[in-house]
From TrEMBL:
NCBIfam families: rSAM_PA0069
Descriptive protein name: PA0069 family radical SAM protein
Gene3D superfamilies recorded: 3.80.30.30
Keywords on record: Iron, Iron-sulfur, Metal-binding
SMART domains according to UniProt: Elp3
Protein species of origin: Piscinibacter gummiphilus
Transmembrane segments: none
Length: 380
């Protein structure tokens, strides 16, 4: 009996965004379950209801900087300390990247996490190169940089340590409270216009957040992160993304109001994107949790995508097209204007960059910052 590659009509796996190990588009083989007369199908169904433990796969990478040539994204380079994301957000546009590893964009994406244990070392080498010129870097563009395993491995912290040492600016979008652990590095960088943090808040409803983003920080905890960063003098914004019609879309103004009250000074918003395997995964989730409005949600999404489930056009993929997309943009802009958000643009300073010291072995000559203690790790 082979494990099925199609969704099963059953309750979701506890603590996961999806229980479907969807076959990715590069797979050469797929399977389908069949009844062998020994109750195997029932046993398989029971097993798929059980919580799946997270597997951490340590990897030593050859390079860590990824360039961006998309005109609708506001950074030039990105560094991803991890691949995959344990938060399990069903809508995550990065799920299809697990296909490159011959892993499922479904359950594997949130249960098989690749940890790039030498990421800071490779980044140091890149910064030390004669050819390197400072560019806008985003940490964690395709995964949240504060995975639960970060408490133990400290890969993200080692990258921020290097940024601090070299005075290299960076931005980050996160759903985790883990950024609070690294305020000793981030706050001094903020005074030099070297950092901007955006906290992703998709809903204020804890029940919705629990099924939409099952292992991310609770909404009230993310608002506290905004407040903590703002009080520490760190430029902090909010990402109300993705906006899903009739699911979290009614909360748009309330989320912006709560973020502004907590201290956010900027905001951005992106409508739901359904590239590749994200499309069937999201539609199955929709049928499981909101069957009474699933058809209505998808009809509105297609209305904003020119009749398609997804349109990858750079000019429209973030905002969509049509009357409804325009209405969403007007609501967002008017709410931001009323709340005083986006009054000034956060400009980071590239001119302070200095190349790092590298020993003959390619490792840092010294490290100024000690790893976080156990008390700090409890902030996650």
């Amino acid at each position: 009996m082979q494990k099925p590659d199609r969704p099963q009509e059953q309750t979701p796996v506890r603590g996961r965004g999806t229980g479907w190990a969807i076959v990715h588009r590069y797979a050469r083989q797929s399977g389908e379950s069949f009844d062998d007369g020994w109750g195997s199908i029932d046993q398989l169904a029971e097993e798929e209801h059980l919580p799946r433990e997270t597997q951490i796969i340590e990897e030593r990478v050859k390079s860590v900087l990824s360039s961006n040539d998309s005109p609708d994204i506001g950074f030039d380079l990105s560094v991803n300390p991890y691949r995959g994301c344990e938060h399990g957000c069903i809508y995550c546009f990065a799920r299809p990247t697990h296909s490159y590893l011959n892993l499922s964009p479904g359950l594997d994406f949130e249960t098989k996490i690749i940890a790039k244990v030498n990421a800071a070392e490779r980044l140091r080498e890149a910064f030390a190169s004669r050819a390197y010129e400072p560019s806008m870097i985003n940490i964690g563009a395709a995964t949240d940089a504060y995975q639960p395993i970060e408490r133990k491995l400290g890969i993200t912290r080692s990258i921020i340590e290097l940024m601090h040492e070299c005075r290299h600016p960076f931005s980050m979008v996160t759903k985790s409270s883990g950024i609070e652990r690294d305020l000793d590095l981030v706050a001094p960088m903020a005074k030099q216009r070297l950092v901007a943090i955006y906290v992703s808040i998709t809903s204020l409803d804890p029940k919705l957040a629990r099924i939409l983003e099952p292992r991310a920080a609770a909404p009230h905890r993310r608002l506290r992160v905004v407040e903590t960063l703002a009080k520490a003098g760190v430029p902090v914004g909010v990402s109300v993304s993705p906006v899903i019609p009739f699911i979290n879309e009614p909360e748009l103004e309330r989320i912006l109001e709560a973020a502004a009250e907590a201290g956010a000074q900027s905001a951005f918003s992106i409508v739901l994107r359904l590239p590749w395997e994200v499309n069937p995964l999201f539609q199955q989730w929709l049928e499981q949790h909101f069957p009474e409005r699933a058809a209505r949600v998808m009809a509105r999404i297609r209305e904003m995508r020119g009749g398609k489930d997804y349109d990858a056009n750079f000019a429209t993929r973030m905002n969509g097209t049509g009357v409804w997309a325009q209405l969403l943009r007007q609501r967002f802009d008017k709410a931001c204007a009323r709340l005083g958000l986006n009054k000034t643009r956060i400009e980071l300073d590239l001119s302070l960059f200095r190349k790092p010291v590298v020993s003959r072995a390619g490792m840092p000559a010294s490290s100024k910052h000690a790893p976080p203690d156990d008390r700090q790790r409890e902030l996650f």
